[in-house]
Amino acid sequence: MILVQDAMVGDVVSVDIETTLKETCKIMGEKRIGSVLIMRSGKPEGIFTERDLLSKVIPKDVDLEKGRVGDYMSTPLTVIRPDYELKEAARAMVQLHIRRLPVVDDGKLVGMITSADIVKAIAEAPLEI
User: Fold this and answer.
1) In this structure, is residue 129 part of a structural domain?
2) Residue 11, Cβ density class (10 Å: 0-12 exposed, 13-18 middle, ≥19 buried)
3) Mean pLDDT of 32-48
4) What is the per-residue pLDDT for 50?
């Protein structure tokens, strides 16, 4: 049995809800990541992904220097606990049509699990015979 905590990434990149779209996209590009967690007063409020950029920002010709990431983030934020089985994370992602889940323990952000993390964990798991 593989748990979420065994496959998650602990270093989650986040920005404040008032950060400009330009700065957010710059961070995503520099760090070569597909999403950032959006924080309000130090607590996770939403997530901004490549899909949000392509479906909510670009088609509306939003000024990246004036637009705030909080206006285009995906909410509500679905989270998972680190002690859940990996298959529960996968099931939630499939049902909700999402590829990323913030991992929260006792109300505190401890990591992020992505569909790629799940595939990697399964591929590297010992074969059961």
Assistant:
1) no
2) exposed
3) 92
4) 95
